[in-house]
């Protein structure tokens, strides 16, 4: 099991490292979302602290709770940040940005501090989410 975990962590960093430079975007609005879901679920998780794993009723309860949490996460397009990414400094942000003449809103992962009006390299991960890889130095850009 430990080797699977280590392999997964190594592959995560290889994949993230493969994204270098992407589209140049300009941040119009940014909001930190790293703690949104956790804030809502902590009170519910506390009720499972004294859970007895040998009790079928407790196992069914946690199963129902996790199923509801999964359904809410999927339907609300919310995302739990990967704990490994959080440990190494990545944050989850709700961002509006301009690319060309258009304005888009996406959820992004970024290790960089995001500032309004600044330019960044953006890589699309899927329809709803992207990765900001680096800040563009304004002096180099001009």
* Terminal Cα span: 51 Å
Q: How is the main sheet built? A: 5 strands, mixed, barrel
Please state the CA-atom Rg, rounded to the nearest Å. 19 Å
What share of the residues lie within helices?
40-55%
Low-confidence parts: none
Find the structural class using helix and strand composition. alpha+beta
Count the DSSP helices: 5
Tell me what portion of residues adopts beta-strand conformation.
25-35%
Overall geometry comes to elongated
Order of helices and strands: HEHHHEEEEH
**Total strands:** 5
Mean pLDDT: 80
Strand order of the largest sheet: 1-2-3-5-4
Helices and strands, with pairings:
Elements: H1 2-18, E1 23-32, H2 36-46, H3 56-75, H4 83-87, E2 91-99, E3 102-110, E4 119-124, E5 129-135, H5 138-141
Quick synopsis:
With 142 residues, the protein is an alpha+beta fold.
Feature tags:
5 helices, 142 residues, alpha+beta, elongated, 5-stranded mixed beta barrel
Can you tell me about this structure?
The protein is an alpha+beta fold and 142 residues long. 40% of the residues lie in helices and 29% in strands. It has 5 helices and 5 strands. It has a 5-stranded mixed β-barrel with strand order 1-2-3-5-4. It is elongated, with a radius of gyration of 19 Å.
């Amino acid at each position: 099991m430990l080797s699977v975990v280590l392999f997964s962590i190594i592959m995560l960093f290889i994949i993230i490292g493969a994204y270098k430079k992407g589209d140049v975007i300009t941040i119009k609005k940014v909001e930190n979302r790293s703690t949104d879901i956790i804030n809502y679920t902590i009170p519910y998780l506390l009720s499972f602290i004294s859970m007895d794993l040998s009790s079928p009723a407790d196992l069914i309860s946690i199963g129902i709770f996790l199923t509801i949490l999964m359904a809410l996460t999927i339907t609300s397009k919310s995302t739990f940040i990967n704990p490994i990414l959080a440990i190494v400094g990545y944050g989850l942000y709700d961002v509006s940005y301009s690319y060309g003449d258009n304005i888009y809103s996406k959820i992004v992962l970024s290790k960089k501090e995001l500032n309004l009006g600044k330019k960044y390299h953006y890589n699309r991960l899927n329809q709803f989410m992207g990765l900001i890889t680096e800040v563009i130095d304004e002096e180099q850009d001009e």
